[in-house]
Automatic annotation (TrEMBL):
Its EC number is 2.4.1.250. Pfam families: Glyco_transf_4 (PF13439), Glycos_transf_1 (PF00534). It comes from Petrimonas mucosa. The keyword Transport does not apply. GO terms for molecular function: D-inositol-3-phosphate glycosyltransferase activity. InterPro entries: Glyco_trans_1 (IPR001296), Glyco_trans_4-like_N (IPR028098). Keywords: Glycosyltransferase, Transferase. This is D-inositol 3-phosphate glycosyltransferase. Residues 193-345 form the Glycosyl transferase family domain.
Amino acid sequence: MQLLFETFRRKKKHGMDFVALETIRALQQLDSVNEYFILVQPGEDRCLQETANFHIVEVQCPTYFLWEQVALPLSLAKIKPDLVHCTSNTAPLYCPYPLVLTLHDIIFLEKKKGNYRSLYQRLGRVYRRWVVPRVLPKCKLIITVSDFERAHITRSLSLNPDSIVTVHNGLSPAFSPSKKDRAVVDRYIPAESYLFFLGNTDPKKNTPNALKGYGLYLKRSKRQLPLLVADLEEPVIDALLARENLQEIKPYLCYPGYIPNKDLPYIYAGSFAFLYPSLRESFGLPLLEAMASGVPVVSSRTSAIPEVAGEGALLVDPTDPEAIARQLIELEESASLYEEQVQYGLHRASLFSWKQTAARVLEMYHQIKQV
């Protein structure tokens, strides 16, 4: 069987990029029989290696819209695959071959909760709102990443439940409590102990309430640990602090911008706790990465997070800064709670692997081929 795997190459990778990348790597370990063509945008980032049955095909196009809707169909006509898997919510409207779509979420079809500062985010939202409703009826199968999201998509779009399956994301073994390296950590924050927050300009990341909660924590904490904020530049932080009247917490913040994935295991493992109070997640991979690093997590009891984090996790109302601060203080003041969360997280994270994810995906491919 010949399979075409579409994944657009970006230098600064985020959630969907890593899901596609790690799934492909795991498939390379599992499957030596089927032939794969991995279509990517040309670039310096060589994050995948070809093997005997995995071929990397670079397809040049100036924009993602043209890449997916024009260049990708032209490549399909040359390769003539038995199956096409598009991995990041969208797919070409013209695809004369059996199509599998990974639909991570339908946040782009929901009412916006705040404004997207990034032009890339705004254009991406418009593109997905236009493409996804048109491409879903053409799919042989839709994969999503949690039972929460599967139920939500099925209900919201009135889909046949048999047309969509859950395949949980995995977890890389790179994340481990042993990943201690002060030299790496010092490049981002000059502190022996710190709290870690992965923010960006997406409203679902709940950055305002995370910072409000941190501000309350500073007023009550005896340690006043600094907060490392990834993926936000200083002008964005300054505007946010001014809008929320939180300028007094700025001396406690470190904001190095984007942190490459190769450094994240050391950042997690070096932190005291990970703050992840998202308003909406279809899965929530960072919370598993932190758990696997031996770090307690304060997260949200919303969307798919309880499904992934499990019953023993520290989950709060993400719209309540008081609850966020209170949980951070409890971790700081209770050594028994802290150790309990470390051990719980390590166990919970061990239940997820990219090998399991890839095996489930491969099973779906074979089922489609047999129909």
